[in-house]
Amino acid sequence: MTVEDTTREFNMDTTDCIAMKPEEVEKDGGEPAVAVRDLHKSFDGQRVLNGISMCVRRSQTVAVLGRSGTGKSVLLKLIIGLLQPDSGSIRIHGQDIAGLTLDRLGEIGKKIGFLFQQAALYDSLTVGQNVAFPLQHNKKQMSSSDQSDRVTELLAEVGMEGELAKMPSAISGGMQKRVGLARALALEPDILLLDEPTAGLDPISAGEIDDLILKLQQEHRMASVVVTHDLHSAKAIAGHLILLNEGNVVLEGTFEELQHSEDKFVQAFLRQSQEDTCRDRRD
Amino acid sequence: MKVSCDGHARAALEAYFNKFLVVSGRAGAGIGAELASMKVTEQIDAIEASAVNPYKLLAATRILACILMLPLLTLAADFCALATGWVSQTLVEPLSLRQFINSGFSGAEFSDLLPPTFKTAVFGLIIGLIACFQGMRTRGGAEGVGRAAMNSVVLSSLFVIVADVVLVKLIIICFP
Question: What's the CATH fold of domain A3-111+189-282?
Answer without folding.
Answer: Rossmann fold (3.40.50)
